[in-house]
Amino acid sequence: MPSMSITWPVSVAASRPQSTIRQWPETYSARSLPRYRHALPMTEGGALPYASQNKGAAHKCGHDGHCAALCAMTMAVENGAVKRPVYLIFETGEEIGLGGELCAPLLAEKGIREVYAFHNLSGYPMGAVVYRRGLTQPASEGLSLQLRGTPSHASAPEEGKNPAPEIARLTLSAQGLNRRDGAEMKMCTVTGVKVGSGDFGISPGEGELRVTLRAERESAMKDMEVALVNEARSLAEKAGLQMEYRLWDVFPETRNDDACLDKVISAAGRLGIQAVEMADIWRASEDFGHLLKACPGALFYIGTGEGHAPVHTDGYDFPDEILSVAVNMFVELAKG
Ligand SMILES: [Zn+2]
Ligand SMILES: [Zn+2]
Prior knowledge:
Elements: E1 3-7, E2 10-11, E3 20-23, E4 32-37, H1 63-78, E5 86-91, H2 98-109, E6 112-121, E7 129-131, E8 135-137, E9 139-148, E10 152-153, H3 164-176, E11 179-181, E12 184-195, E13 202-203, E14 206-215, H4 218-239, E15 242-251, E16 254-255, H5 258-271, E17 275-277, H6 288-294, E18 297-303, H7 323-335
Parallel strand pairs: 1-5, 1-6, 2-4, 4-5, 6-18, 7-17
Antiparallel strand pairs: 3-5, 7-18, 8-16, 9-14, 9-15, 10-13, 11-12, 12-14
Helix pairs in contact: 1-7, 2-6, 3-4, 5-7
This protein binds zinc ion (2 copies).
């Protein structure tokens, strides 16, 4: 019997990678559901009775809701709702792109034929299934560029090498990478600029620029990375500075398989759930793209309401009303 995987992001309180995959007996059905459990470095606003008790750490992406939906799916499978093997993947590291990469090899290892996931999405009708054909979320990565010279007394900057002018030029070049080539998006967002400690008595010897690169194609993202690294290298050489760079939180592009997306739309139709096609991609990145490279599948979204606060903002709260939509959709997809 063909197996399939329904995937969700699952997060973890600790920072170390951790993933649990459970296979039901062959007499049961198999598909796979991954999910993230992963706190974000932010506060939890409002007076929620279940607000995070850890100051500066909160689940503002719906990860607790993702886990709850996956647990409910577990009960549905155990109650015999699906008559073939299903893999439920509790995955870590959604926010930094690690979980999908960690789990992707298991799809081939277990012979999984299809993989599905959902994420909650604000700005669409509550409980609606929202989807996009082909590319649904872009690739992204963090890039930090360090320039190192020599500090000196602020009264004698000529005795040191202060990288402030080169960091400034590099920042402007980074901003200049933002563009649309026709319909294709390429973004470079400056997320941090730092030169020295700010002490008035010191001409600093170190500077750093941090950017997030985002593009519809991984190759276009790589082109931006190479352009910035080459420029940093060239500026450093001319000014006699040392240059180092590092990549962080690398996410692939997330591209849906046409036939699998058709199954998502059909499942919504059979359940009487409104299906809404997105005009544009969701600009955030998603590590589920790693699983979609390993196996055909689809990532769809469940609307949380037009006026609902976006994920990763203080006012966000996962609406429990969409849990049943998630579970019913996965059961329907798992039935095939
Ligand atoms: Zn998320
Ligand atoms: Zn998130």
